[in-house]
Amino acid sequence: MPPRLDPADMKVIQLYATGGEVDASDLSPEIDPSDDSISLPTNHVNGTTSNRVNGTTSNRVNGTTSSHVNGTTNRVNGTMSSASLSSASELTASISLASEFTAPDLPFPPLWPGGSLLLAWQLRAKRVLLIGGGAVAAGRLTNVLEADALVSLVSPANGLCAEVEYRIFHDPWARNRITYYDRAWFGEHDLDLDGGIDMVLSAVDDAAVSREVCQAARRRKIPVNVADVPPECDFYFGSQIRDGPLQVLVSTGGKGPKIANIVRRKIEVNLPRNCGQAIERVGELRRRLRVRAPGVGGEMGRRRMQWMVEVCDRWELEDLAQLEDADMDRLLDEGWEKGHVLSPEDVGKKTAANEEVKSFVGELSWNREGLASVLGATLGAAIVALVVFATKARTSK
Ligand SMILES: C[C@@]1(CC(=O)O)c2cc3[nH]c(cc4nc(cc5[nH]c(cc(n2)[C@H]1CCC(=O)O)[C@@](C)(CC(=O)O)[C@@H]5CCC(=O)O)C(CC(=O)O)=C4CCC(=O)O)c(CCC(=O)O)c3CC(=O)O
Ligand SMILES: NC(=O)C1=CN([C@@H]2O[C@H](COP(=O)(O)OP(=O)(O)OC[C@H]3O[C@@H](n4cnc5c(N)ncnc54)[C@H](O)[C@@H]3O)[C@@H](O)[C@H]2O)C=CC1
């Protein structure tokens, strides 16, 4: 059990929050006794390391923001809820930080080395060499084919698993993108296959072969991943979510792949419905806007971005998901052209928020009716009782 942090100690620590307010629940520190600073994880669900819209480390529209919140020595990126020192007692800390340590008043948040560079690698029309045809290779194949890569696959046919075999020979989309070699890895020469290789993935059950593959790729400076052998990886795979254009990758930097899987599933169930569809529609709106207002950068670029930010802020994701082409025309004709942003109601859409209010009011009115009939019945029964009582009283006189 790590030491509990006394709220009274909170004054000696300083928090660098680079976006929004901070909630104690977001501040669960990592436990690392060898570290001489506290390390706080980012808010995985709401946080982004670079948020252009709501102001974190890099915000293209509103400029760079960086706010200092007194609390603890750390940088937290992301959108967070309210700060409260009272809940600091909830915090457990792994601080070998001297209790009287005071963070210097740095002009910018301190850097947090030791991470991976997370990117969205564009593999379209690039060639990936995949060595191996088992279960792990099947997962790798899915990942790179979904990124529109071309694949050269080297693996003896007698070792192919059913999924890899299906992709190579039957899958109507994949089979045209895979060039298959029914044999074992030859050596460095394989890096010249099909006009040259841009990325190498090894998923074989033979450590000596993997090592050779890794060394050959590194000699040629081609990025390589050897499944399960971190020192032989230039990049790691992560646990992924896919919903149309939305992709989320959870990485633990090799520390806990199963934890990556668990965190990914937690994120998955919390994602808004129709997120992928909303992004598709926003993509179409942005495309149409660029047709009307072409060009890169400058005053027009700034106006365009500001307008898109406002549309995304003003519309619920669920409403964006319902945006039809005609709605986009109205948004552009009556909004963009006149320098403002129409609401979903302005273009005659029911908003998700309104629908929620309506269904709540609907429930209330149902309850009112229910209540009225109960009251009515009670009142009726009371009158009947009164009449009976009065009649009895009269007859007993
Ligand atoms: C470094 C990395 C290199 C790479 O392969 O890219 C790597 C390395 C190793 N994995 C090992 C084991 C397991 N890997 C998984 C699962 C996944 N492993 C993945 C990635 C990565 N694994 C990269 C780091 C990613 C990160 O840290 O975030 C995922 C996320 C993505 C994917 O592979 O597609 C996928 C989940 C996909 C999903 O659920 O969505 C499970 C869980 C299970 O099988 O249920 C276990 C057993 C439990 C455990 O050990 O934690 C071992 C020990 C082998 C041994 O002990 O013999 C090593 C080697 C070592 O640690 O030294
Ligand atoms: N990162 C991860 O999530 C995981 C990684 N692994 C590792 O990935 C590797 C592969 O695992 P599996 O797919 O389950 O193994 P597997 O045994 O099902 O498949 C191995 C494949 O490699 C092929 N192969 C063997 N020697 C070859 C050579 N010299 N040239 C070309 N192909 C060759 C075999 O024909 C077979 O298709 C193992 O080393 C395993 O430890 C395993 C599980 C999870």
Automatic annotation (TrEMBL):
<dbReference type="Pfam" id="PF13241">
    <property type="entry name" value="NAD_binding_7"/>
</dbReference>
<keyword id="KW-0560">Oxidoreductase</keyword>
<comment type="pathway">
    <text>Porphyrin-containing compound metabolism; siroheme biosynthesis; sirohydrochlorin from precorrin-2: step 1/1.</text>
</comment>
<dbReference type="GO" id="GO:0043115">
    <property type="term" value="F:precorrin-2 dehydrogenase activity"/>
</dbReference>
<dbReference type="GO" id="GO:0019354">
    <property type="term" value="P:siroheme biosynthetic process"/>
</dbReference>
<keyword id="KW-0472">Membrane</keyword>
<dbReference type="Pfam" id="PF14824">
    <property type="entry name" value="Sirohm_synth_M"/>
</dbReference>
<dbReference type="InterPro" id="IPR028161">
    <property type="entry name" value="Met8-like"/>
</dbReference>
<feature type="region of interest" description="Disordered">
    <location>
        <begin position="35"/>
        <end position="58"/>
    </location>
</feature>
<dbReference type="InterPro" id="IPR006367">
    <property type="entry name" value="Sirohaem_synthase_N"/>
</dbReference>
<protein>
    <recommendedName>
        <fullName>precorrin-2 dehydrogenase</fullName>
        <ecNumber>1.3.1.76</ecNumber>
    </recommendedName>
</protein>
<dbReference type="InterPro" id="IPR028162">
    <property type="entry name" value="Met8_C"/>
</dbReference>
<feature type="compositionally biased region" description="Polar residues">
    <location>
        <begin position="42"/>
        <end position="58"/>
    </location>
</feature>
<dbReference type="GO" id="GO:0004325">
    <property type="term" value="F:ferrochelatase activity"/>
</dbReference>
<keyword id="KW-0627">Porphyrin biosynthesis</keyword>
<dbReference type="Pfam" id="PF14823">
    <property type="entry name" value="Sirohm_synth_C"/>
</dbReference>
<dbReference type="InterPro" id="IPR036291">
    <property type="entry name" value="NAD(P)-bd_dom_sf"/>
</dbReference>
<feature type="transmembrane region" description="Helical">
    <location>
        <begin position="370"/>
        <end position="391"/>
    </location>
</feature>
<feature type="domain" description="Siroheme synthase central">
    <location>
        <begin position="243"/>
        <end position="268"/>
    </location>
</feature>
<keyword id="KW-0520">NAD</keyword>
<keyword id="KW-0812">Transmembrane</keyword>
<feature type="domain" description="Siroheme biosynthesis protein Met8 C-terminal">
    <location>
        <begin position="272"/>
        <end position="341"/>
    </location>
</feature>
<keyword id="KW-1133">Transmembrane helix</keyword>
<dbReference type="InterPro" id="IPR028281">
    <property type="entry name" value="Sirohaem_synthase_central"/>
</dbReference>
